[in-house]
Amino acid sequence: MELKEKLIASFMAFENQVDLDDPVHEMRSEALKNFEAKGFPHRKMEAWKYTSLAGLQNVDFSLFPKADSDLEYRDVKAYFLHEIDTYKIVFIDGIYSSYLSETTHDGVDICLMSSALSKPMYRPIIDVYFNKVASREDSLTSLNTAFTREGAYIYIPKHKAPRKPVEIIHFSTGNEAAQMLQPRNLIIVEENAELQVIERHQSLTSNEVLTNAVTEIFAGKNAIVDYYKVQNDASTASLIDNTYIDQKANSQVSVHTFSFGGKLTRNNLNFYQDGERIQSTLKGVTILGEKQHVDHHTLVHHQQPNCESHQDYKGIFGSRSTGVFNGKIIVDQLAQKTNAFQQNNNLLISDKAEVNTKPQLEIFADDVRCSHGCTIGQLDKDALFYLRSRGIPEKEASALLMYAFANNVLESVRIPEVKARINKLIAQKLGVDIGFDL
How many structural domains is the chain composed of? Predict the structure, then answer.
């Protein structure tokens, strides 16, 4: 049985495990109908031209965890940002781990999606925000909505800020030969509130895992949100990540995506600006080897005047890896005085690596400053020769140039410990030990 048919056949069993009176029951049913009609995306679709999911659809994924898995903190400490204190929302094979987590309701809600969906006290928030910015047209988002059960729920009221960042971590233990996970996150940051989030998906074995994740983020007036996605998973792990962001006037939202591992990673990042003087920042660093595949799809929709967006994605591709960047900026007729920037730069350090890049602008206003561009090239031989002439070995010299190549992306990371961790991961990916920080 192919994966689509298995998912549709399993929906009734899933419904029997959840409360049929919960506020998203009808949404689930409608979402399943949409997925059933559209199925998995395929390469004949323009948005999926360079990324195929065909191989995943023939894997016999387990859809529901059959047993609880216990992990000790010492076994997974390396995957936490243990250098600083954080709130933690941790899931093991899709099941919440209270032992590894630290949640709070002290002035803010940092807890579970399952609680928000099932408890009446959260109903007013769910009615206003859940599934309101997520696409109804995207079949994989619909699939996630149909099977929504667990994930992170974060609600920051007006004029509030958690006293420390939030980590959202999903572990896959390999208890199943192959497993599919579908986490759903809902994050609301109200007027004049602030939030910092670090998200990670991590497989702990070589068993195959497919994660179809959806995150909805709502930033109220004057809100500030910093979101960091760390993607450094096993070579048998695939991730499809749909993130939807709704911004109100004067809000600032930045999303940094660091893609260093995994079999197949597809990042769909969608910003919708609904107000004036909004700032949206999308940045990413990708370093791949082997046969790894990363596909970044971005959208920034400018709907009101006097707003800014800044996209900057760097990619370093070795061995037989493949990179895809498809970025779109839409400027509505009302969105005068828009300042939008988009750049994608790539280094090929293997003649077998491949990059497909397509920056796009759709501008319907006449008083704007918009630019886009992309480059695909190799390391500067003159710069490499200069460094080697100063006594730096070739491997370290190459790594130094690649560090410099990614530097401007890391400059905007606002959590020093996250920046230090990413520096270490870059050094590991490049196979060198460089004794400095960018």
Answer: 2
HEC states along the chain?
CCHHHHHHHHHHHHHHHCCCCCCCHHHHHHHHHHHHHHCCCCCCCHHHCCCCCCCHHHCCCECCCCCCCCCCHHHHHHHCCCCCCCEEEEEECCEECCCCCECECCCCEEEEHHHHHHCHHHHHHHHHHCCCCCCCCCHHHHHHHHCCCCCEEEEECCCCCCCCCEEEEEEECCCCCEEEECCEEEEEECCCCEEEEEEEEEECCCCEEEEEEEEEEEECCCCEEEEEEEECCCCCEEEEEEEEEEECCCCEEEEEEEECCCCEEEEEEEEEECCCCCEEEEEEEEEECCCCEEEEEEEEEECCCCCEEEEEEEEEECCCCEEEEEEEEEECCCCCCCEEEEEEEEEECCCCCEEEEEEEEEECCCCCEEEEEEEEECCCHHHHHHHHHCCCCHHHHHHHHHHHHHHHHHCCCCCHHHHHHHHHHHHHHHCCCCCCCC
How confident is residue 34, by pLDDT bands cut at 50, 70 and 90?
Answer: very high
- Note whether 112 and 252 are same-domain residues: yes
pLDDT at 438: 41
Q: Which of 228, 245, 274 is the last residue of a domain?
A: 274
Claim to verify: residue 390 and residue 265 sit in the same structural domain: no
pLDDT above 70: residue 181:
yes
CA neighbor of 426 nearest in space, from 311, 285, 235, 229: 285
Question: Which pLDDT score, from 0 to 100, does residue 21 have?
Answer: 57
pLDDT confidence bin for 397, thresholds 50/70/90: confident
Residue 1 or residue 190, greater confidence:
190
**Residue 311 included in any domain:** no
Q: What range does the domain containing 409 cover? A: 380-438
| Nearest by Cα to 317 from 389, 248, 243, 402 | 402
Structure tokens at 167: 């980590």
What tens digit of pLDDT does each residue of 91-146 get? Answer: 999 999 999 999 999 999 999 999 999 899 999 999 999 999 999 999 999 999 99
What pLDDT sits at residue 394? Answer: 80
More confident residue, 340 or 424: 340
- Identify whether 295 is part of a domain: no
Determine, yes or no, domain membership for 331: no
In a domain, 367, yes or no: no
Domain closes at, from 246, 274, 302:
274
